[in-house]
Amino acid sequence: MQEKIDKLKNLKLLFVEDEEDLVEIISDTLKKLEANFLTAKNGEEALGIIEENSDIDIIITDINMPIMNGLLMIKELQKRGITTPVIIMSAHTEMDFINEAKELGVDNYLLKPFDFIKFIDLVTSLDIE
Questions:
Q1: Within the chain, which residues score under 70 in pLDDT?
Q2: What is the value of pTM for the model shown?
Q3: pLDDT number for residue 60
Q4: C-alpha–C-alpha distance, residues 99 and 3, integer Å
Q5: DSSP tally for the chain: helices H, then strands E
Q6: What integer pLDDT is reported at residue 92 of this predicted model?
Q7: CA dist., res. 13 & res. 37, Å (int)
Q8: What's residue 129's pLDDT?
Q9: Residue 73 confidence (pLDDT)
Q10: pLDDT given for residue 126 in this prediction
């Protein structure tokens, strides 16, 4: 596991999530792991962060958010030619959204409640160029 944590430290992550409690839990844990990460409250805010940070390695996004949801954000990333890998975080009840995300080319998703071990396994298994 230490090898995966070391790999995680070399990545720059963007978490897009509107639930403040979850963002706080994720942020606290990532800080303890010395990970490099940014957060956004919705897809629109995330797009601005992505424009200012071309070195983001992985985007982890919720689907249901105000202003711009995760699926619309993914469509906008594709329009802009941004190919950063995306991981969807979703509740079990959102299978329609997960299926739509797959149609958009997103193969990686985590079901809520958020599991850090699964998260670290998934993030460190992605082929980042």
A1: 92-94, 129
A2: 0.90
A3: 94
A4: 32
A5: 6, 5
A6: 59
A7: 4
A8: 60
A9: 96
A10: 82
| Helix ranges restricted to H, the chain | 2-9, 20-32, 43-52, 70-79, 95-103, 116-125
Residues 9-21: b if buried by 16+ CB within 10 A, e if exposed: eebbbbbbbbbee
C-alpha span between 124 and 78 (Å, rounded): 23
Any idea of the CA torsion for 57, 98, 112, 27, to the nearest 10 degrees?
20
The single-letter DSSP state of residue 86 is: E
Q: Is the peptide bond before 85 cis (omega within 30 degrees of 0)?
A: no
Residue 40 is predicted with a pLDDT of 97
Q: Is 86 exposed, middle or buried (0-12, 13-18, 19+ CB in 10 A)?
A: buried
Q: Are 76 and 47 in contact (CB under 8 A)?
A: yes
Q: Is the distance from CB of 38 to CB of 14 less than 8 angstroms?
A: yes
User: Could you tell me which residues come within 8 angstroms of residue 25 by beta carbon, excluding any fewer than 6 positions away?
Assistant: 114
